[in-house]
């Protein structure tokens, strides 16, 4: 596990306080259908070739930020477990949403556990995926281990990284009216983080993009490893929402770098997005084409 010190925690705490001021309509004490406070299951399990290992250095800062956002807003209580058995239907029944924070690989090959995750979301549960959640239930070069997961989250990360974690990109809040984008004030912004490209199962016909790379303000030079279809449409999405059956899904590829979880507007984006997944914030998830 990657540890975070007191100074790092204090920085995240300050960012959480600022994020709460930026997030629209944050109401404490949200209740689930059972009348109890919302419960969010968070896992950061990393598996390669069937072996559990450490993952991104941003996992612990991300988990700390998720816990603090929930506690300080009163919107949810976060519970953390890397046990795949938590995906069993009787365990998921105790939660309102599941968050995969930088999970990687085939977390379980048990088809019953895989199906119970899908059933949970499709029957009205929420799902939140951050960064490497799109590199989950697959392992390069194979992306056929659990295709329904790729369809549910909105796509698998199997197109490479055209921008590395130390490079600057400019993001456009495409859906400026969405409450999940309220913290950005409708303005483009610079950020440094690793960028994923989605290939299998990704389509704007199935999701509503919230953030995308601004192609006019970001280096799209020919030497970058950009998929032919993405270079043709200059359309690389970063965050989106979608519905899966009766459930709600938020995915954001932000989160490779630890500093993402100390960025107030981004944390407010995550806060609102998690509340959407929990069913406590209305947002239009109608798919639409890239605006002209």
Explain how this protein is built.
The chain has 292 residues and is an alpha/beta fold. The chain has a single domain (6-161, 195-210, 237-278), classed as 3-Layer(aba) Sandwich (Rossmann fold). It has seven helices and eleven strands. It has helices spanning 6-22, 59-73, 89-92, 111-122, 147-153, 228-233, 264-278; strands at residues 39-43, 47-48, 51-52, 77-80, 97-101, 126-130, 168-173, 189-192, 208-213, 237-244, 247-252. Strand 10 (237-244) and strand 11 (247-252) form a beta hairpin. Helix 1 crosses helix 2 and helix 1 (6-22) packs across helix 7 (264-278). It is globular, with a radius of gyration of 18 Å. The model has no long low-confidence stretch (mean pLDDT 94).
Task: Please describe the structure with a list of short key phrases separated by commas or semicolons.
292 residues, alpha/beta, Rossmann fold, nine-stranded mixed β-sheet
- Average pLDDT figure: 94
Low-confidence runs: none
Q: What does the largest sheet look like?
A: 9 strands, mixed
How many domains? The number is 1
CATH topology name, in short, is Rossmann fold
CATH superfamily: Class I glutamine amidotransferase (GATase) domain
Order of helices and strands: HEEEHEHEHEHEEEHEEH
Q: How many angstroms does the end-to-end distance come to? A: 44 Å
Assign the CATH architecture.
3-Layer(aba) Sandwich
Q: What proportion strand?
A: 15-25%
Total helical segments:
7
